[in-house]
Amino acid sequence: MRTITHWIGGKPASGTSTRTSPVWNPATGAQQAEVALAGVADVDAAVRTAAAAFETWSQSSLSQRTKTLFAFRELVNARTQELAEIISDEHGKVVSDARGEVQRGLEVVEFACGIPTLLKGEYSDQVSTGVDVFSFREPLGVCAGITPFNFPIMVPMWMHPVAIACGNTFVLKPSERDPSVSMLVAELWAEAGLPDGVFNVVHGDKEAVDALLDHPEVAAVSFVGSTPIARYIHERGSAGGKRAQALGGAKNHAVILPDAPLDYASDHLVAAAFGSAGERCMAISAAVAVGSAADDLVAAVSEKARAVKVGPGRDPDSEMGPIVTSAARDRIVGLIGSGEQQGATLAVDGRGLSVPGHENGFFVGPTVIDGVTMGMDVYREEIFGPVLSVVRADSVAEAIALINANPFGNGTAVFTSSGEAARRFQRGVNVGMIGINVPIPVPMAYYSFGGWKDSLFGDKHIHGPEGVSFYTRAKVVTSRWPRVESASGSSFHFPTAV
Ligand code: NAD
Question: Which phi and psi (to 5°) does residue 116 adopt?
Fold first, then answer.
């Protein structure tokens, strides 16, 4: 059995803990590797290594950092297919989707290649006679990233390229469910010329996460994952005096107005609900059909859901792969059943799907549940599977109220041909990322990514300008260069500009 180790100080490291966790192939249901689970001593070794590397990396020139980032960008780009296949084998998503994930991560690397521009400070000449004021930003130290299974390369890339470009060093704790791709990323950083110890990977579970949260030499923690853990990370990290940003779960609604082009809207809804088997934080899991849109929409979406080709991620004909683990599959199946028991109608039922040749894979087919109401578990829970709930509303105002009553506020979308309705929607919803006739409104890397309410704890969104701000702190210098002969003695009043 292959063992996936940590990466500390520019090379693989077995660590001292003997705990491991199985890594599955979701398409076959077989265990394909085991991953080492770091203990407190292993995390300490990684953080100390990163702290030592910070001494020199934080002093590296912007030119050196930019060259390293450009080299890393080229290597990731050249190895996209290999990275995508590693992701597909452990996550289950289809390779074309995994390639898209690599591409979106790469866009953050490209953003970080512009770090000399992003770190420019401000300068005010002659704020008082003979006095200038200027500001610049400095790195924080060792930054930690704790990331979810669903985007094993893109979500870490929301963090480490920006943190490293800003002059920090980094310890990544990826999901233990699909850990391998982080090891290749570490190799590519090394090949790009990043000094040893600047980027480190520790695998693990709660024990490793707690060790990072409590380590005095970790300056900042970025987290992406489910809401209960996000809340915990933010509280415990902040209590330990660290900067903390923690992105949580989601329940993304798409509102379909009667004037929306039905074919267009249903195509996009199906892709947004079932792409990556619904295991995206920006997946659409609730379709809010307004007024007369409902019946035709359910019919169109159901027909398209039945046509989705479900199969192993490595099969180029597959449009949707399996669920990440059998436990996640069983939970999704249970939630679909609860919808039926609580009075909803299964327009398309994906339970019991069997993929020929992959009978033991963790598959669930696309599922459409009609007549869903706010009290049902399928509406209240983040299902994180290929399940689309259809809720009916009488007006745009009712749809907006429904969205605003939901505890999550990650993403939402509206389908309409009315600019007036779209504008009312974009101004009315308490949600961080909004799509207008765009179902998965993931901002480009030069904007920042983040939700509202229970979808984000902390006040900074991730990557983009807010990422640069999160991974740096400001210094403001007030400077005077007096002529020695003009010294005028001590003055004890509070300094004011003259
Ligand atoms: P998760 O919360 O189970 O795990 C995320 C990370 O936290 C992993 O590294 C895991 O090892 C660690 N972890 C798990 N339990 C822990 C505990 N008790 N204490 C400390 N650390 C713990 O999430 P997941 O299942 O890997 O990913 C899916 C979730 O992530 C969904 O809720 C999804 O919405 C969310 N997500 C959100 C965004 C976003 O941008 N808001 C993006 C991607 C995923």
Answer: -60, -35
